[in-house]
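Worked example 2:
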Amino acid sequence: MMEGGAGMKDTEDLSGDRAGERAEARAGDGAEGERERGFGAPFWKLWSATTITNLGQGATGIAFPWLATELTTDAFLVALMGLALRLPWLVFSLPAGVLADRLDRRRVLLAMSLARAAVVGTVGLLVAFDAMTLPLLYACALALGFAEVLFDNTAQVLLPSVVSRERLSEANGRLMAAQIVSDDFLAGPLGGVLIGLALAVPFAFDAGTALVAAVLLLTLRGTFRARGAPADSVADGAAAPVRRSMRAEIAEGVRWLWHNPVLRRLAIALALFNAGGAGVAAIYVLYAQEVLGLGALGFALLVSAGGVGGFLGGTLAGRITRRVGATGSLLTLCALDFVAHVVAGCASNALLIGTVMGATGFGVVLWNVTTVSLRQTIIPDHLLGRVNSVYRLLGWGAMPLGILAFGGLVALVEAQVSREAALRAPFFAMSVISVGLAFYIRRHLHARALAEALEGAQPAQPDGR
């Protein structure tokens, strides 16, 4: 999925207390030299926390749809589980952006890690005691979705505080490569093995990794509040910024994104891509079971195939983007995605499907590194949480709509043709979306438009904490 998961994806004045200033000074003493040698300790702490989080998410990413198929074989009801996980992106993205700009971002990540541990731990207990039902599964998935929205959006906007602007593409590539390896490549097979032990085990594992991530975040020192609030947010003679209503802050983020043509068009492209991708993902488990004849471990390995390509995409993203340009990187995904979904719609060989989906994983990470780095560079830091949340509202909020649309497509084709044709139909629909997006990108997101957007960006420096 585009901008999937934690560690990606994509601020006002720091607190003026002297203790915070001293902490910042101490942390910044060797920052320049440290960045010359590498990314620095704060980045690697964030990297470790998000990577371990993604390992747990990957295990339950296999377990959630598998659990849904244990409770029902109805394709539409299985798709509704994915809808419950994605619906919070539609209804909570904008408030999450305001919170990321108002609060200490490290503390937000810490709180959401603890919330995740509580939710998936509850699911594990319900499964262990054979007390899980579809309504309870939907409720837990919905609660988990709210925690993920706030965690993912905040993790993405915290990154510019720990690395320099010049190294954002490389840092995003490292984060996304780690996400793909842990979430898909490692956690997928691990999730299949854990399901084989007991269906409750992957959820217990996810709860444990969330707690480990919380401990790692506690070691990230300093204050990570938003920087650079405009002067009109401070009252005359006041020592602190004036707290505006959440509605006013959301409106500011919406206006800023909508008046930036490059980010607006990127958000629209992401919305179309993610709507189709979520629709395919919602029926993927049934496709693997009934068309490819795979069990839990086989399904986990199939999902993990995207991790191989994704890892290569993350490690090579900076080099490839410099060679083919940002527009070329976006078009690469469109081409790979078209081929992969046509093959998946026609073929029945799991090895072949895994190979082409691995190529798509390469393209997805290349897209994510390119677009996340663009946002982190173009958007002013004091607006980063809000504008990023509006962007992701369009991109991720489209997912539940895509799931409903593709779920309806499956039901319609099954009624008119056959079950197998119905499970293949979403792949062909996604290939059509990929072609349309390629034309859209060539027309609206060409190299000149991206260069003009970057020229107008305000330079920002990391906090050095």
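Confidence is low (pLDDT under 50) at residues 4-37, 231-240, 459-465. The first helix runs from residue 18 to 28.
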